[in-house]
Amino acid sequence: MNLNKGYWESRYEKMGGKRTVGKSSWDDKTYQEVLDQFNSGVLDAMMGGRRWGRILDFGCGIGRWRPGLERRCGLYCGTDIIEEVLQDGCMLMTDNLIPYPEGYFGLIFSCMVLQHVVDDELMADYVRQFKALLEPGGSVFLVENTSGPDNNYMRKRSAKDYIDIFSEGGLPLKKVGAFKEHSVLVSTEF
Ligand SMILES: C[S@@+](CC[C@H](N)C(=O)[O-])C[C@H]1O[C@@H](n2cnc3c(N)ncnc32)[C@H](O)[C@@H]1O
Fold it and tell me: For residues 15 and 80, what is the distance between their CA atoms, to the nearest angstrom?
């Protein structure tokens, strides 16, 4: 399965830290404004006051959403394919394997990660793993770019594509909102 890991290694190395996410044209002020908009317009607006025991931040990168997620759970867990970016307490994936036990999470959150999974087989495998990692009644919360053309590191699936892929894997999703060019898709409304 193609994880496109080489692309992310060189992107993190060249651009470093927070400049790897968002647009390279953003200055610090704009970067912070987008973070604030996301925290209020997505996390606060769509998760409300809901709390979970354990949340997985899949493809956590530098942990941009960690403060907002930590406020909503007993234990924040992040995982990514790139070791250098991982903060304390986050776990490195071995190839495609998400390194946590079955039934461990109340919520799997993933922001701007599955849009970079260009390999359909890998995508289906992640859905299978998400399903296994969730406790009974657990939820998925995705924010993915669903517009524009594909390129070598982006697979622009539509919101319906995500709904179909997750439904095949036994995790029905619903689009509940948008953030800029991204769709917000959840398996449970909060
Ligand atoms: C655009 S960044 C988003 C990071 C973080 N979720 C955020 O919003 O700040 C995409 C992240 O997905 C990770 N990633 C890319 N391909 C992946 C894959 N096949 N499996 C797991 N993570 C992947 C990258 O290493 C990177 O940290």
Answer: 17
